[in-house]
Amino acid sequence: MSDTACLQVLHTQIDLDSWHAGEPGTVAFVPTMGALHAGHLALVRRARDLADRVIVSIFVNPLQFSAGEDFDSYPRTLDADVAALRDVADAVFAPAISDVYPDGDPRGVPQYAAGPVGETFEGVSRPGHFDGMLTVVARLLDMVKPDVAVFGQKDAQQVFLVRHLIDEHFDTVSLEVVPTVREADGLAMSSRNRYLSAEERSHALVLSRALRLASTDPTTALAQMRALIEAEPEVNISYVDAVDASTFRSVAPVDRGVDRVAPGTTLTYIVAALVGTTRLLDTVDVTT
Ligand code: PAF
């Protein structure tokens, strides 16, 4: 970003098109729902290394929230987000719902289905979440037309599905995945951390502590992780598992014992839990 460049705030496809026309060069894109924290800023810094210009979207996508979830209360902090991006990005794309979905109707854009992987793990308690997420990511890629899209590893299932979306439908876009950014005490950064009370936050640390037990032997590691988390009374596990990173299928189905894990396999350990009423995710990769 040149010294004289200043952050542009764009809202519509027309704004995006004139931003593209204004300056040649490659574009890196960081899609977000706002409420930015240091984890997002790490994505933006990585984006800066990868392209001439960086654009960050801020859009709370109604299509990926189920009834009863926190769509209405999801933190919307546009002024603070724009301020945080002022020196690190070239543009913010902050559309209204009707700029993304014609007439505000999500059915007006091509729909993408996450398939069987979308029904596991996060998809069990959030039916339709991944279809809505893929649909908006595809829509944003169509609108922003980046050369590279940058995502955080923390949402491992999302990253797996976005990788397939990009491989299958966006051959001019490459995907960059950035490691999870953690607080000094290990808590994975998340916009939802702000919902935690001080006490809940200290209970939530058990998730990153558990993931430090990840090893190349998922049988032992998963048992230890589960025991550790279950010993924390305020933390209710949704799942703790190890999946093959290339398929996102569990390598440790409880009903038939652990499958053989071939040497060189990357295992993605995933954990999700409710801490109070806040749902938190964390993940770590281990190569056997
Ligand atoms: O990870 C998120 O913040 C959202 O799922 C995304 C990728 C911005 C799509 O709404």
Automatic annotation (TrEMBL):
**Which pathway features in its UniProt record?**
Cofactor biosynthesis; (R)-pantothenate biosynthesis; (R)-pantothenate from (R)-pantoate and beta-alanine: step 1/1
Membrane spanning stretches: none
GO MF term set: ATP binding; pantoate-beta-alanine ligase activity
- Which reaction is recorded as catalysed by this protein? (R)-pantoate + beta-alanine + ATP = (R)-pantothenate + AMP + diphosphate + H(+)
- Which keywords has UniProt assigned to this entry? ATP-binding, Ligase, Nucleotide-binding, Pantothenate biosynthesis
For this chain's UniProt record, which GO biological process terms are given?
A: pantothenate biosynthetic process
Annotated Gene Ontology cellular component terms:
cytosol
**Might you give the EC number(s) for this enzyme?**
6.3.2.1
- Which InterPro entries does the protein's record reference? Cyt_trans-like (IPR004821), Pantoate_ligase (IPR003721), Pantoate_ligase_C (IPR042176), Rossmann-like_a/b/a_fold (IPR014729)
Describe the family membership recorded for this protein in Swiss-Prot or TrEMBL. Answer: Belongs to the pantothenate synthetase family.
**Can you say what this protein is called?**
pantoate--beta-alanine ligase (AMP-forming)
The species this protein belongs to is: freshwater metagenome
